[in-house]
Amino acid sequence: MRNIKLTIEYDGSRYQGWTRLGKDESGNTISNKITEVLKKMTEEDDLELFCGCRTEVGVHAYAQIANFKTSSSTTTQNIKHYLNRYLPMDIAIIDVKEVPERFHAQLNATSKTYVYLMTIDDVPSVFDRKYTYHCYRIPDKRLMQQAAEKLTGRHDFRNFSSAKKTKSTVREIFDIDIYGDIEEMQILIHADDFLHNMARIIVGTLMDIGLGNRSVQDIDDIFAGILEASAPCDPKGLYLQEITY
Length: 245
Description:
This protein is about 20% helix and about 30% strand. By secondary structure, the protein is of the alpha+beta class. It starts with a strand and ends with a strand. Helix 1 packs across helix 2 and helix 3 (about 140-150) runs antiparallel to helix 4. It is built from five helices and ten strands. Strands 1, 2, 3, 4, 5, 6, 7, 8, 9 and 10 form a ten-stranded mixed sheet that branches.
């Protein structure tokens, strides 16, 4: 069996995330679209696709990583061409490589980075509206960075996620970088892993602090369970930027 690694770019706007299981199971997911084409190409009905990070509903990816095993002899170049020919145009396979048998996109990942894109103006851009969050006021970047410093490090992020059946909710955030000016802002979160909706809830909370709706001290109170975190941010501005191995 060959082990094939895919690097995938996608617009998550019209999909139910990377995958949707349990009572919310859906075929309208990124993984299902790719798996259907792979099964057709390989004629292997039991083919499984594993991903590095399960993005949520409406979230995009610059470089999602996935892998699958196959007995097909199709070259990596032909796999790439076949997938891009039959996949919807909002999903693109940007690289295909054969990797060692033990490589696993999820289990071997050492860190993941999300980036949130935001524009700031009194009138939203008609061209950016589908892929960036629009804010009518300039958030206080200094306060947001102070709050971000409290989130950095190894913590129990149970109260910053909607995870219900996760064995451990402890994660480590390596960095949160906030860039921006009076017209746009980017929030980068680099962590060892993310719980369900963790990135969106952290961004939503930082935004509330930057806009004066919450205080920096609220971060400590959320960790302690005294206060609830803010609502998740709008997914259209969130992108999975990188997965490292």
